[in-house]
Amino acid sequence: MSETQVRVEIADGVGTLTLNRPEKLNAFIGEMRTEIARGVEALGADDAVRAVIVTGAGRAFCAGADVKYMTRLIETQALDEALALVEGGREVATAIRAMPKPVIAAINGPAAGGGANLALACDLRLASETATIGQTFNRIGLHPDWGGTYMVPRLVGPARAAELFFFAEMIPAAEAERMGLVNRVVPADELMPLAREWARRLARKPALPLRLAKEAIRRSLAASFEEMLDYETAAQRACFASDDALEGVRAFVEKRKPDFGAKPAERPAERPVERPAEADRHV
Predict the structure, then answer these.
(1) How far apart are CA 276 and CA 273, in angstroms?
(2) Count of CA atoms in the C-beta half-sphere (13 A) of 199
(3) Which pTM was predicted?
(4) In what order do the strands lie in the sheet with 170-172?
(5) How open is the CA angle 244-247-251, to the nearest 5 degrees?
(6) Phi and psi torsions of 199, nearest 5°
(7) Which stretches within 28-113 are classed as H helix?
(8) What residues contact residue 246 under an 8 Å CB cut-off, 6+ apart?
């Protein structure tokens, strides 16, 4: 992992991935997208990590593509190299969504274009009062990528999505919170402490229910009510069989804090969810 572009740290069950080009507002260049994807995948595969934070070094979260770099690619019509950047963004967004652990974006400053959609790919988003976020692609004649056309309409609705995509303006953090793009806005000096607090709280929770709930949210966007009821039954069956469920109910009965630490079982997403037997429908 290149220390000049991406930094990965692990402490107290929390993995932190920091974009590290502060002098360029953490704009993407070259293999940086691939390094981010590899960092996300490594944190997802590490059993010591139970929650992840994504943030930027310096005063920005991520300014999107490095425009000087993009200018060279477009001027020389290096389309294969330019499209490789798009595919790199796809790889990062897919890795975050596929990660079986909760991912928190700590948006410490401007998040523009692909940087905005990197934040939106995360499960939870905290923003500094000084942060801004925008779908700025058409300012340089480009189209949204990094999964923005999937995520933005689902977060804010089609009319608001059209406004964000068409006008390509940077939205202040407070407005982003009202629109549903971020979960919480806090003073700048409280951003990382709150992100770490949330991550540590999530790290103490049972891994399997969090993993299954993340998968449920993803599935629910395209599934019917009946299909989600079936998924809930399959997910609950997996939880019933887990060590963490046994620890959870025993701790409740014994009036103590649970100590969750069992490795999650294979998630139902890896196999079809079968319609449960009639007796199981009342679980």
Answers:
(1) 9
(2) 29
(3) 0.87
(4) 111-112, 132-134, 170-172
(5) 140
(6) -65, -45
(7) 32-45, 67-75, 79-98
(8) none
pLDDT tens digits, one per residue of 221-268 = 999 999 999 999 999 999 999 999 998 999 999 999 898 984 444 334
Q: What's at 120, amino acid-wise?
A: L
3 pLDDT tier (thresholds 50, 70, 90): low
Please report, in angstroms and rounded to a whole number, the separation of the first and last CA atoms in the chain.
46
Is the separation of the CB atoms in 13 and 48 below 8 Å? Answer: yes
Q: How many Å apart are CA 188 and CA 54, to the nearest integer?
A: 16
Q: How far is Cα 12 from Cα 162, in angstroms, rounded to an integer? A: 41
Asked if residues 177 and 184 have their Cβ atoms less than 8 Å apart, the reply is yes
The token duo for 151 is 């995520």
Burial environment of residue 83 by CB neighbours within 10 A (0 to 12, 13 to 18, 19 or more): exposed
Q: Hey, which residues does 127 pair with through a beta bridge? A: 107, 185
Pairing of strands 170-172, 132-134: antiparallel
List of residues 6+ apart from 250 with CB closer than 8 A: 258
DSSP, collapsed to helix, strand or coil, labels residue 251 as helix
The amino acid sitting at 50 is: R
Tokens standing for residue 268 = 């139902």
SS3 label, residue 125: strand
By the 10 Å C-beta count (0-12 exposed, 13-18 middle, 19+ buried), 45 is classed as exposed
Which letter does DSSP use for residue 80 in this model?
A: H
What's the gap between Cα 266 and its chain centre?
A: 21
pLDDT digits (tens, 9 = 90+) for 176-209: 999 999 999 999 999 999 999 999 999 999 999 9
Q: How many CA atoms lie within 13 A of 257 on its CB side?
A: 5
